[in-house]
Amino acid sequence: MDSATLHWLSLSNTNQEDGRILILPEFGNLNILSVFHPYIAKKSFTKDNNKISIDDFYYSTQFNKELYYNNVDTFQTVDRHIRKNVLWKHSNCIKQFWQLLKNDGEDFPDICPYAYAYVNWRKTLLKTERFYRSDIRINDVARSGGRFGYELLTRAITDDIKLLLEEYVLKNNGEKINKDTLEWIQEHWTYRFSLMFFYECLKYSGDILVNDKKNTNWDKILMDTKANFKIAFKYQEVNVMSAKRINLMMYYENTIDTKIVEHHCPNHSLRKKRAISKMKSYVPARISIEYPKNYELINYVSSYIKKHDY
Predict the structure, then answer these.
(1) Is residue 39 helix, strand or coil?
(2) Which of 92, 127, 155, 164 is 20 to 30 A from residue 193's alpha carbon, by CA?
(3) Does residue 30 have a pLDDT over 80?
(4) pLDDT score at 14
């Protein structure tokens, strides 16, 4: 009785001109590939331009660097969107938590849930070792990837995207393909998932602060986001003015509420925001130099980091 399933079965071998489907089962469903759910984005590529082979995909350092840089640019686009449109009131909060800022002789101040979500979103998605940073240069990210095969800055979704791109390359039966199509697929997957994951982090950040990690944690949120992330692609060859082109369509089902969650920000007043600018950073590298014999302070900072670095 399911309308999407009935429609799917009715298409059996009768609509080859609709193109071929590119999908990973765990990230798709019939609804997003039916007539009831139109494509979200579409782009056309010249088939014979910028062609690469399966060996290039697996072994070419230059090609993998290009894919890596493409991923870096996409992540930075998402990052800018979040900071400019969602967290523009909380830049000081991010700085305070990220740089471990506090006043001398005082405990670390209360953490802003918005900053908590943002910092841990980056840490989990990029799989960085620590949540804190010694500076606030947000767009300072590594551009040395792609040297050892397929790598992405957004390491938490590297294997998922790689499986999809491998499927796309292998479906061409050994023929070379336009590398720009790979970048387009990668861009859309990276952007959509990264943004969806941020909103999920924001939803739960307040509870995690209150309950530590008793009820949930960032890795669980990541896995839950993957379980609800539905995306698929369709591609077809067409002839335009005697030239062969590839049409790519992206289908996406947004299953979460992107409404900004209302959390209490401990730095909502102008006085609190100004106070952050006068605080001192207590990142381990700095206090080990400035307070080498203050074991009580070092242990306090280490305990604080351990509490939030999971």
Answers:
(1) coil
(2) 92
(3) no
(4) 46
